[in-house]
Automatic annotation (TrEMBL):
It comes from Uliginosibacterium sediminicola. Residues 23-278 form the EAL domain. This is EAL domain-containing protein.
Length: 280
C-alpha cells in the first residue's frame, strides 16, 4: 500500500509537471504569436429571426501555432488575460476586424451590416482603450454605429463605477454595446439600468438546452421579455437546429446565431456567404 501511494504521488507530480510545462510552452508561444502572424479572425453571421437575413457577424479569434497546432480561444484567452497579453492581442483584433469589414464594404458586400468584437475585462480596464478605439475607427473609416463591443456581465460588475464610466465613454464614440453570455454572471440586474446597453446575448447553454429542459426554456423566455421591456434587442447564440430557431422566433427573439445557419467562417468563406446570402 505504501509503494502504491508513492507511485500515485509520482504519477500526480509527473502530471503536474506536464501541465506546468505545457502552460509555460503556451505562454512562450503566445508572447511571439502576434509578431509571428499566427492569429487570424473568423466571422460568424447573425441573422434577423423573422426574415432570416444576415444582420451582422461576430469576429472570433483563431490561433494556429506551428508547435502546438490550433489552440481554441477558451484555452489561450484566459492565459492572455492573466499575462496582460490580451491588450496588444485585443487591439490587433479590433484593428484587423475593422479593416476586413471596410474591405468588404468597399466590395459592396456588407452595406450597413454590424461587426461584433469581443472585449476582455483587461481591455475594458485599460485607460488607453477609448483613445485606441477612436484611432482604429479613424484609421479604418469604420462607421462607429456599425461596430458592437461584446462585454460579459462579470466585466461590468468587477468594478461597476469605473466600468460605467468606461462604457459611457465608448458609447460617446458612437459604438454599440452588447452583454455577452447573459444569464451566467451576477444575479444583480440593476446594472442593466445603469449601463447604456443596446443588446443582450442569451448564453448558449440555455439555448442549447431549451428544447429538452423546461427551466432553460423558461430562462430564455424571461430574458427575451426582460430585454424587450428595457428596450434592448435580444440575440440567441448556440442555435444548432431549425426547431430551436422556430421556437426562439415564436418567443419573439430578435436575432439568431449558431451552427444551424453558419459556423464561424474565414474571410474568404464570409465573402462567399455574403455573395449568396447578402441583402441585395
Ligand atoms: P463567445 O463570445 O460566447 O463566442 C461564441 C462561441 O460559441 C464561439 O466559440 C463560437 O464558435 C461558438 N458557437 C457558435 N455557434 C455555436 C453553436 O451553434 N453551438 C455551439 N456549441 N457553439 C457555437 P469560440 O470561437 O471557440 O470562442 C470561445 C470564446 O472565446 C468566445 O465565446 C469568447 O468569450 C472568447 N473569444 C473569442 N474571440 C475573442 C476575441 O477576439 N477577444 C476576446 N476577448 N475573447 C474572444
Ligand atoms: Ca461573444
Ligand atoms: Ca457568448
Ligand atoms: Ca462564452
Amino acid at each position: 500500500a505504501k509503494s502504491a501511494g508513492r507511485d500515485m504521488a509520482r504519477f500526480f507530480s509527473q502530471e503536474t509537471d506536464h501541465r506546468v510545462l505545457a502552460r509555460q510552452t503556451m505562454e512562450v508561444q503566445l508572447r511571439q504569436a502576434l509578431a509571428a502572424g499566427e492569429f487570424s479572425l473568423h466571422f460568424q453571421p447573425r441573422l434577423n429571426a423573422r426574415s432570416r437575413k444576415i444582420q451582422g457577424a461576430e469576429a472570433l479569434l483563431r490561433w494556429n501555432n506551428p508547435l502546438l497546432g490550433h489552440i481554441p480561444p477558451a484555452e489561450f484567452i484566459p492565459l492572455a488575460e492573466e499575462t496582460g497579453l490580451i491588450n496588444p492581442i485585443g487591439s490587433w483584433v479590433l484593428q484587423q476586424a475593422c479593416r476586413h469589414w471596410m474591405a468588404l464594404e468597399q466590395q459592396g458586400l456588407c452595406k450597413g451590416l454590424a461587426l461584433s468584437v469581443n472585449l476582455s475585462v483587461a481591455q475594458l480596464a485599460n485607460p488607453e482603450l477609448v483613445e485606441q478605439l477612436s484611432q482604429v475607427l479613424h484609421e479604418t473609416g469604420m462607421p462607429p454605429e456599425q461596430l458592437e463591443l461584446e462585454l460579459t456581465e462579470s466585466h461590468l460588475m468587477d468594478n461597476p463605477l469605473s466600468a460605467q464610466a468606461r462604457v459611457a465613454a465608448l458609447k460617446e464614440l458612437g459604438v454599440q454595446i452588447a452583454i455577452d453570455d447573459f444569464g451566467t454572471g451576477y444575479s444583480s440586474l440593476s446594472y442593466l439600468k445603469r449601463f447604456e446597453i443596446d443588446r443582450l446575448k442569451i448564453d448558449q447553454s440555455f439555448v442549447l438546452g431549451m428544447m429538452d429542459d423546461a427551466a432553460d426554456a423558461a430562462i430564455v423566455n424571461a430574458v427575451i421579455g426582460l430585454g424587450h421591456t428595457l428596450g434592448l434587442a435580444v440575440v440567441a447564440e448556440g442555435v444548432e437546429d431549425l426547431a430551436t430557431a422556430q421556437a426562439l422566433t415564436a418567443l419573439g427573439c430578435d436575432e439568431l446565431q449558431g451552427y444551424c445557419f453558419s459556423r464561424p467562417l474565414t474571410l474568404a468563406e464570409l465573402i462567399n456567404y455574403l455573395q449568396h446570402n447578402g441583402q441585395h
